[in-house]
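subagent[fold] <- orchestrator: predict structure for attached chain, return tokens only, no commentary.
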Amino acid sequence: MDNIAPPKYVLQVLRSLKARGYVAYLVGGCVRDMALGVHPNDWDICTSALPEQVLEVFPGARPTGIRHGTVTVDINSRHVEVTTFRSEGEYSDHRHPNTVHFVGELTTDLSRRDFTINAMALSPDGLLLDPFGGLEDIRRRCIRCVGQAPRRFEEDALRMFRALRFSARLDFSIAEDTLEAIREKASLASSLAAERVKDEVGKTLLTKKPETVGRMAQLGLLDAFLVKPGEALPELSAAASLPRKALDRWMALCLVLSRRGLISDVRDFLSSLKLDSRSIRCCTDGVSILSGPKPSNAPEWKRLLCRMGVDTVSCAARCLDALDGGSSYKELKAVLKSGECFTMKHLAVTGDDLAELGLRGRELGEMLAFLLDYVIDYPANNRRELLLSLAGNTEEL
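subagent[fold] -> orchestrator:
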């Protein structure tokens, strides 16, 4: 932690609160990242000051989560979330506390957090407060719940996904009692909003251990989205060689799930997880491509590009290479680099050109399709005069 210091704007918030007589600490993920030697992306502060008192200290601050004690302080186009020490009541929906109570000391606030590595605090003068052994768990490379693991997951079922995501992202093991509690409480995952599950699965897919999503399935966390009980997906580890792009990783997951019979329809699976329409379309088309014979020559690649688009076909080729081996993406790149026509956009004639020859409606559309198909086979002949000549001799075609 000595190698990473909070930025000046964060220290300014801490010191301003202290100057007004309040206690304030850096807390949560930023402290964890500093302990790991990673520069934090976000800086969170917890304090003894009540939300209205924070607003008095920082008149331009925004009450972004006032019910839960959170105020966002903006300094020089940067923002810091400042949250009052709090305890929480029951979680009847297994996601959000029914009530929040503001408290005056730090340990009670830390005791409500999910994992020990996220339950550390750092004072403005650099003193680490670690009542639950988070620093030791970082040294042991272990994910462990604060307090009783079953209770933590009953409070917020999303924490089960987070445990696995952190283990994948940090390459940490999960403590046996925490893992056993996930097995015990996995059915609570069905109460979660699909969007939250999608976010956790998507973030896990982007780690160096995408096969951890298979562990989520094996533990029963994805039962609401699969057609039969989940299982480990070791072959998904190959997806780590793919670019860290959401579309590539989701397509690889869909292909593995489809091959194992864990989903019956890619579109239905992704729709149930509330993915965006572009991802649903690309993954559905991509798995369709990967479920058939691989293109064996340039014209076949170009016809595939014409039907499915560059993004989908490129993603499918990368997935095929990653999961099954081969050089599909290299072959595809050669086709794209050639600059040869595979869409109407790059055809040397347009619909207006054909209309001047007297072609109309369906006949015009069929002629454009014929000429594109011809040019895909004979790319050197994508010349306006030649194509107009072909189109003008319709009775010979």
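orchestrator: received. Logging for downstream: The first strand starts at residue 24 and ends at 27. The CA atoms of residues 194 and 273 lie 5 Å apart.
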